[in-house]
């Protein structure tokens, strides 16, 4: 039967008993991507195949029905029979053709420092494959090495250690993913993890390094700073700002003029004696003491416990019956338990009595003041003790003692301290023994040795008699030239209180309004009023105390620390210039006025600075392809004060019996200057302008009332600023003495030589570059050396004429005619030989001319050169000199006063 036949064919069983064939299969369903094809009609074997490529990602399974049909009866296949419908299920197998892809382009997260998280964030990737095996993400991985993070198989990232905002503010991680078929993500993903600091009360917006350009006025230190309080309920804030400058000299930038000048600038009256001056020709008792000039050229003396100095007698005439003041800068450590003497006045011989002394002992400052013998032999105050931490803290402090017996007032860094102990003693016994004033130890006259040595540093030790220092002067001496400043905004002036310490190195700000407090802090500035401040670091520290409701201190604000970097100032170059060589007659040296040493002295100070090149220069640099040249150097003249000018003698010291350097003291006093002199020269001191120093130096005169053996004198001038911080060039001056001789009567009139200088020739004498004033008229009889010179010169001229004659004979006739014209100009009249000698040649030129002549004269009369005076041997200056010499000669000729109508040689 047919049904039996179909079933047999479909099951691929052959039957020989029943004859039947299967002609095709029909698939039922919409858009079925399969077709069924008959392979064997007799057996009914067929195959289902796909029409196109299958895609698992589009459809993983297909379900449809299929029917088979036979070939029918008759030749045209009519009466075709169909089978029942069979259901077909087809599953499409997957291949790992896709890689994982992250859902986001990047991931971000923020964490708080100091905390370990179970999960910071999750990254997620997907895979487009259709199968479970290939579409699942089996693993995530952090590609970035050495980071404190890890990631699990589900994409959760966590930190492996506590993070620190100070160490790293943001981490950037690269993360990839793998599917279960081990395909890696096509693109890795970036993960940014920001570290947020825990909210800690602190100062925010504070720059640790603040650069200060000298000469720019005040500089705001905290322009963007504010206080973070973490939303705590604040009731009051107090901040202390300290500017630490202890490493600079004596504590901060102060004027480094001499202590005597500083006292005068601060308004102290006269009578000040400087006991520790910088070594000079007029004050040399501090020579040999170790010094530490510091960063700003303060003159600081070091006492190591073995050295002391004696002050010359007569320097201090302090009477204990009068008020007097002692001031000193001192730096002293803990030291030993023995007495350490700063200043001591004791018996010079025989006994060891201390008349008065200032010393330290066990961190106490003690003033001993023994009264002179008197009628009343009563106890009187003799020792004043102050116990002070400042004495032993190894820092610089300024001490001023105002003594008005029987009371003594002490000021330390401008603050008053009362003695905690005053002991009494009898007055000293009468004695005719002289006293010895010493520094750094006390002189034991009976043992002839020093004792009670000081260990530390001293500077600016002064004694002023007759008048006490007032508080204004003391503050001026102590106050810094640098410090803190604040300009309170009007809107917050009433809400915030600001207080300064005496030298303005620290201040306190107090208020209850945070916004107003921040504004005040932003207006605090650094100011240095010195023209040439000391470069270097000034440390800053802000200490803050905050109070809250119901609690004294609820918020702890850490100290904020930084520093002000004062940049190197443009240093001045002090230049001294003027006439450095001239001659004067002996009569002028012996006159009442003497000779002016620096008649045309000029003091100029310049600074050299780099400036940006202009457009033209930049264009030129571009043309030269030299981009490294960005700046050009320029010099400009500046004005500032001087504090010392010293004139010293070059060579032998001054002989007080017949020579001296003098200056008009009234002119000095008018300008507030002082002068000290010695056999080495003189020193003018005092803070004043360069113009005033010029005027005073113009007045310095050299006198010598015994000039017979004097031919020249040399002097050196040096000026300085800020106690030697800036020093000028060495300006040397040489002055020659012109000696004139009187007429001499000869027994044989035939030996009298005719006048050597013809007045007709005087107009052509070149006197440029010389200054000769009031030369005396006299007839001069030539010496033997002069006759030798005349003979030699005559011989030399004869040889020149002979040479010229031979040259002329060898030339053409026209040239000979021309030479004949020259020969007429060189007619020689040796009956009365005339020689013009310039007595104003420099000392160096004199020797050079003598060396030229030695070749001819040495064998005959070389020894006679010693008898030739400078006026007789100097030749005129080179007439072919350059323009600078001509200009100098013109300036010198203005002072020339020469009467040569009858001057003869």
From TrEMBL:
The residue ranges of the Cadherin domain are: 25-102, 103-203
**What's its membrane topology?**
Single-pass type I membrane protein
- Composition bias, kind Acidic residues: at what positions? 850-886
> Where does this protein reside within or beyond the cell?
Cell projection, Neuron projection; Endoplasmic reticulum membrane; Golgi apparatus membrane; Postsynaptic cell membrane
Q: Where is the composition biased (Polar residues)?
A: 888-905
User: Which of UniProt's keywords are assigned here?
Assistant: Calcium, Cell adhesion, Cell membrane, Cell projection, Glycoprotein, Membrane, Postsynaptic cell membrane, Repeat, Signal, Synapse, Transmembrane, Transmembrane helix
The UniProt entry, under Gene3D superfamilies, shows: 2.60.120.200, Cadherins
Q: Which GO terms describe its biological process?
A: homophilic cell adhesion via plasma membrane adhesion molecules; positive regulation of synapse assembly; positive regulation of synaptic transmission
List the residue ranges of the region (Disordered). 841-905
Q: What is this protein called?
A: Calsyntenin 1
